[in-house]
Amino acid sequence: MAKQPVDYGALLSSIEASFPMVQILDKDGNVVNKDIMPDLSDDELVELMRRMVWSRVLHDRSMALARQGRLGFYAPTMGQEASQLASHFAFKKQDWLYPGYRDIPQLIQHGLPVSKAFLWSRGHAEGNNYPEDLHAMAPQIIIGAQYIQAMGNAVGQKFAGKEDEVTFTYTGDGGSSQGDVYEGMNFAGRYKAPIVFFIQNNGYAISTPREKQSSAATLAQKAAAAGIPGVQVDGMDPLAMYAVTKQAREWAAAGNGPVLIETITSRFGPHSTSGDDPTRYREQESFDYWEQRDPLIRFRNYLKEKGLWTDETEEELIEKTKEEIKQAAKEADQAPKMKISDFLKNMHGEPGQNTVDQIKEYEAKESK
Amino acid sequence: MANLTMIQAITEALDQEMSRDEKVLLFGEDVGKNGGVFRATQGLFDKYGENRVNDTPLAESGIGGMAFGLAVQGFRPVMEIQFFGFIFEVMDSIVGQMARTRYRTSGNLNLPAVIRSPFGGGVHTPEMHADSLEGLMAQSPGLKVVIPSNPHDAKGLLTSAIRDEDPVVFLEHMKLYRSFRDEVPEEQYTVPLGKAAVAKEGSDVTVVAYGYMVREALKAAEKLEKDNLSVEVIDLRTVSPVDYETIIKSVEKTGRMVMVQEAQRQAGVGNTVISEVSQRAILSLEAPINFVSAPDTVYPFGQAENVWLPNAKDITKAIKETTEF
After folding, report:
1. Is B124 a catalytic residue?
2. Which among A96, A124, A186, A353 is the top mutation candidate for probing chain B, defined by the most B β-carbons within 10 Å of its own β-carbon?
3. Which of A30, A248, A252, B5 has its CA 20 to 30 A from that of B226?
4. Can you give the residue ranges of the Transketolase-like pyrimidine-binding domain (chain B) (predicted)?
C-alpha cells in the first residue's frame, strides 16, 4: 500500500502539544516555575491579593443584593478572580477595556464607580454614563461582539499612532465559538493591531460544557488560524496570569500585533442570578475539584509564606469592602428617575421631525 | 459644473471629504487597489494610502466591528458593504450596536459611521445581491437611512452623511450608478439629511418615491402631462427619518397620493409613510392612497426581474386610478 499523504492523527497531536498550560503557583501556592516569576514588588503582590479578595466580596454581596431584589442581572465571578483581576493588573489606565457582562470587576478596577455597576445591573441609563477618563465600553451582551469592536478600537489606536496604549477584551469558552471571535482575531492580525484577547474558559456556557463547544483540544490554538500567538494559562494562578498578560501587552504595544490568552478557570456558582441552577448540569466532583484550586487559597498561602499576608489583614479588608459596597448600593438608590423624553433626545444628535413631536408629547406627560 | 454619473459623484464626495478631514477612513472588501467592485473608491487608495483606504478581510461582521471601534477612537469610518444583500452578516454591528450607542451611553458616546452599500434591482446580479432591504434599517431607531436618486443629491447627501454625528446607512441604487449624468458642482456642498425634495411640481396628485423609483415616477409624470394631468413628484432622499412636512404640504395641495417603492409591499418604507399621511392628512384626501410596490415574494430570479420590478407603466396606471377615483 502506498504511503498516506498525511498523518492526520499526528497532525492533531502536534497542534495540541503546541499549547501547553503556563503555571507558576500550584494549587497549594508552591512555586513550580521559578524561571518565569514576574517582577512584582511586595506592595504590588499585596495589592493584587487585595483586588482578588475585594472581587470575592463584591461577588458575595452582589449575590445577596440580587436575592434581596436590589440588583437586576448579575453574572457571578467567584472562582475567576485570578483570571479577571490578575490579567487586568497587567494593563495601564490608558488601555481600552471591552468587557463581557461577567467582567464587572475589571471594569470597576479600571475606574467605573461601583454604584454605576449596580445601576447597570438594575437597568438604569446612568450605569452606562461613564466618566470621561474611563477608557472602557459598557459590558457587551451579544456574545463575541466585543471582539470585533475591540479590534476596531485597536486598529484606531494604531492608525492614530498611540504609543504604549493597547486594547484588551474578554469572552468565554462559549464565546470562542462565535464567528465574531475569529473575525476579531483575524482582522487584528491582518492590521497588526495592539490588542490582547482573552478567552476565560470556565468550563460552561450557561449549561453547555466546554467539550461541546469545539473539538479543538485547546481554545488557545484558535489563534493559530488567525496567524497570531495563542497561549493557555492556569487561570487560577494569579502569578501566571499576570506574567503572561504583561508579556502579551508588551508584545502588542511594541507593534507585533495581537495575542490570544486562554485562561483555564472555573465559576463556582451559577451562570447568573436569573434562575440558573448549576447542579442541573454539573457534578459535585467538579465543584470539589475546582474549589481546591481556588485562586485565593493558593495566593493566600504564597503570601503568608512570604510574610506579606495575615488573616487579620484579610478580615479588615473584607469588612472595609462590605461597607464600601453598602454605600455604593445606597448611592445607586439615589439615581434620578429616567425620562422617556431623555431617551428620545439621545437617539440622534439632531432629532428627526417625528422624534421632535414625540419629545414634546413625552415632556408634557412627564411634567404632570 | 461637471457632467457626472452617480458613481463619479460618489467618488468625488469621498475624495473631497477625505481631503478636508483626515479622520475619514474608507475600508471594505476590494475598496483599495481595485477601487471597489463598482469603482466607487477609484483612485483613492493611490491618493490617500493604505492607512486611509484599505482592503479588509472578507467578513462583513468584522468590517462593522472595525467601524465601531474606529469611531470610538475618534475616526469617521466610511465602511462599504459590497452588496446590500450581505447586510445580514453585519446586522448586529449596525442595528444592535452602532444604532444604540448614543442612547445606551446617555449621549456620552456617538457613533459617526457611514455604511455605504449598493442595492436595488434591475441589473441582473446573482442571487442575494439586489434586495431592497432599506425597510429593515429604516425600522431601526438610531439609524439614518439615505437613498439618493441622482448624481447631484448623491454627492451632497454623502458629504452630509460623513459629517453627521450618528450612524448613517447610505444606499446606492445599482441601476442609477451609470444610467445617466447630471450637472454636479465641482466644489463641496451638502444636501441636508431628513429633507425630501420636490423633484417635479404639480397640482393634481402627489407621487412619493425614493431611489430609482423617482426616475420611473418622473417618466410617468411626463407622460401624463400630455393628458393634462399635473403630477407632483416627491423624492424622499432620506427614508429614515422621513420628512413628513414636505409630503403633507403637497398632499394638502393635491388631495391625492400615490406611494411608490421598489421593495415588496410588506417591506420598504411605504407602509410607514402611508400610515402617517392617513393619520395627519385624511381630511385633505379625495381618494384612497394608492401604493405601487413589488409583490410579496423573495427577490426574484434574474430573468424574472423585469416583470417583478415596478415601473413607470405601473405608476401611470396607479396615478390614473387615483385621479379618476
Report:
1. no
2. A353
3. B5
4. 4-179
